[in-house]
Amino acid sequence: MRETPLSNCERQLILQAIADRQRLDGRQTYDYRNIKITFGTEYGCCIVELGKTRVLAQVSCELATPKPSRPTEGTIFFNLELSPMASPAFEPGRQSELLVKLNRLLERCLRNSKCIDTESLCVVAGAKVWQIRVDLHLLNHEGNIIDAASIAAIVALSHFKRPDVSIQGEEVTVYTAEERDLIPLSIHHMPIAVSFAFFQQGTYLLVDPIEHEERVMDGLLVIAMNKHRELCTIQSSGGIMLLKEQILRCTKIAGVKVAEITELMQKALENDKNVRKEGGKFGFAESVPNKRITSFKLDEVAVPTEGIEEQAEEIVSKAETSPAVIPKPIVRAPGTGQIGEGIQNEWMINDLEDDEDEDEEDIVPELGAQSLGNEAEIIHLSESEEEEMVILEPEGCQKKEKKTSKGTQQKTSKIISQNKNKKIQRKKRSQL
């Protein structure tokens, strides 16, 4: 998969920022990104983080036959792998031009500079020597792979310890860590590569370029140097012409950066040695913040509390006053309620009113019976006006029936009309 090219707007933004002495990540021109070194549980295993660029280094050894031209020297191999996990632009199982260039630069920086005493790796001259292999895996690509890889390789070699051996005649015995103490490698110096990116035909110079800056740069200069200011290797790519003054200025900057990085590496190695000696916890898992992979710890930030009360009073004074009307529940029927204004809840209201109409009975006492002081029977009035009215009275009241019939009919008609009005009002309420 090819990497996504930068648009013209992005290129112009990066170049304009560089011309204004600014960088995308907020660094200055000669600033290096933060370096973090973490060691694994085994000797010779470490992870180096240069900003967001991460490289895993693992050193291993085995007995092998030496080269005929150098029978008393051990061998060292470097292998850098660029996996798609680091960037989608890297293809698995295929050596790209970038990978070949990086491997060759690592060999020139570390092996050709004689930073490791290869004669100390000899076991039997011409028969058995130690073969040291350094495997480098790029975990995340955010620019400047060669610097991160060179730091990871030399730190892993300094941290690595090989097993002890003994020779009895022609027999070579290799002891484990439980049987004999492991032996560290003999390292003369620590060469570290420092990269310089040039823009607009060498007009502008940046140290430790990130990925976006590498895409728009015109040339790259890599200088490998140790803390004694001894030049180990130098390589220029990109086809730009550099002046002698520019190269000398880069070597001075590289000397300062290499001294700082070397001091950081030695402190990390010393801290790991002390932790292992004291029996403390070490390894990649112990380097995770809060000892939890899924947790993130943020830095504490002080919150200013001056003038909070005045600001709160000002906000309250500008806010609109709340309405004084307090909504009350509206009870339309037993078992139902409504708060505020809205659509009326009509669930089972009609059924309740029908049941109430059936259960209620219109009761009208007989006026003639009350005047006589005797118990009178109850009159049941029907909803229909066409039905005949039947009034049952005692036998002694038959004479007064004619006089009271007109008055009772008038009163009963009034009661019927009142009942009708009540029913009409109930229906209107149910329809609202």
Q: Summarize this, please?
A:
This protein is of the alpha+beta class and 432 residues long. The chain contains 9 helices and 18 strands. Strands 1, 2, 3, 4, 5 and 6 form a 6-stranded mixed beta sheet that branches. A 4-stranded antiparallel beta sheet has the order 12-11-13-14. A two-stranded antiparallel sheet has the order 7-10.
List keywords for this structure.
alpha+beta; six-stranded mixed sheet; 9 helices
Residue share in helices?
A: 25-40%
Q: What does the average pLDDT come to?
A: 80
Radius of gyration: 49 Å
So what's the oligomer here? Answer: single chain
Give the CA-based shape.
elongated
Overall structural class, as computed from helix and strand content, comes to alpha+beta
Describe the structure.
- With 432 residues, the chain is an alpha+beta fold.
- The strands form 6 sheets. Strands 1, 2, 3, 4, 5 and 6 form a 6-stranded mixed beta sheet that branches.
- Strand 15 and strand 16 form a beta hairpin.
- The radius of gyration is 49 Å and the shape is elongated.
- 22% of the residues are buried.
- About 4% of the residues have low confidence.
What is the topology?
Elements: H1 8-19, E1 35-39, E2 45-50, E3 53-64, E4 75-82, H2 97-111, E5 122-124, E6 128-140, H3 145-159, E7 161-162, E8 165-168, E9 171-174, E10 183-184, E11 192-199, E12 204-207, H4 211-216, E13 219-225, E14 231-237, H5 244-278, H6 308-318, E15 329-330, E16 338-339, H7 349-359, E17 363-364, H8 367-372, E18 379-380, H9 401-431
Parallel strand pairs: 4-6
Antiparallel strand pairs: 1-2, 2-3, 3-6, 5-6, 7-10, 8-9, 11-12, 11-13, 13-14, 15-16, 17-18
